[in-house]
């Protein structure tokens, strides 16, 4: 059995987001705007009647999930595999500082080429490899009537969902980033896999009324 819907939800804004600083696994809290974003998004997601709520244990994701827990009465479960990419000693650098201090690494990242973050951080491939199984764990015991919400981080969500869907890595850059407190909505398909219902969404899903049959 599998869930009827899987929502992968990015956390609200932090001060470091606003300052264009690399966060990685630095435990940065939501700022006032981010708290407001989380509350507004939680009110929309609550209308989907979620049945399970899982979050990264980093406080910006945990606090975002807590807003939905308050509205739904769900208990937040935590999974460290849902954390953002580990950037090691790059944490706190602005993107401009990173490009100045590590121009070759910054160029490889912009080009979508393999690059370990920081001295001993993770690669994008490593993040996806830990994140995708966490999504599978989140839905493996669910019923078709269930909606599972996962509160997490932008880069980890983007590449982890791509791997979860079986999308070849060469195509991952074709999927854009997730804005603060927006989400990816996935639905089960007829072949027991998953398909994208919405990507970087901030509004509730609408029925698809067209000549395009649902998969």
Automatic annotation (TrEMBL):
Gene3D superfamilies xrefs: Phosphoglycerate mutase-like
Lineage summary: Bacteria, Bacillati, Actinomycetota, Actinomycetes, Propionibacteriales
InterPro entries xrefs: His_Pase_superF_clade-1, His_PPase_superfam, PGM_Phosphatase
Name of the protein described by the UniProt record: Histidine phosphatase family protein
SMART domains per the UniProt record, alphabetical: PGAM
């Amino acid at each position: 059995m599998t869930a009827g819907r899987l929502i992968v939800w990015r956390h609200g804004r932090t001060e470091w987001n606003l300052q264009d600083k690399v966060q990685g696994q630095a435990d940065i809290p939501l700022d006032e705007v981010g708290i407001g974003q989380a509350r507004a998004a939680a009110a929309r997601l609550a209308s989907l009647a979620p049945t399970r709520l899982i979050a990264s244990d980093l406080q910006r994701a945990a606090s975002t999930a807590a807003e939905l827990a308050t509205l739904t009465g769900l208990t937040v479960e935590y999974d460290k595999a849902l954390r953002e990419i580990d950037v090691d000693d790059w944490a706190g650098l602005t993107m401009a500082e990173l490009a100045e201090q590590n121009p070759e690494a910054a160029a490889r990242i912009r080009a979508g080429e393999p690059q370990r973050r920081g001295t001993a951080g993770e690669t994008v491939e490593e993040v996806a490899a830990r994140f995708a199984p966490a999504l599978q764990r989140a839905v493996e015991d669910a019923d078709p009537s269930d909606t599972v919400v996962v509160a997490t981080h932008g880069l980890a969500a983007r590449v982890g969902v791509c791997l979860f869907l079986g999308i070849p890595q060469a195509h991952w850059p074709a999927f854009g980033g997730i804005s603060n407190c927006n989400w990816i909505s996935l639905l089960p398909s007829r072949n027991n896999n998953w398909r994208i219902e919405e990507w970087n969404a901030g509004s509730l899903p609408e029925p698809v009324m067209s000549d395009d049959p649902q998969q």
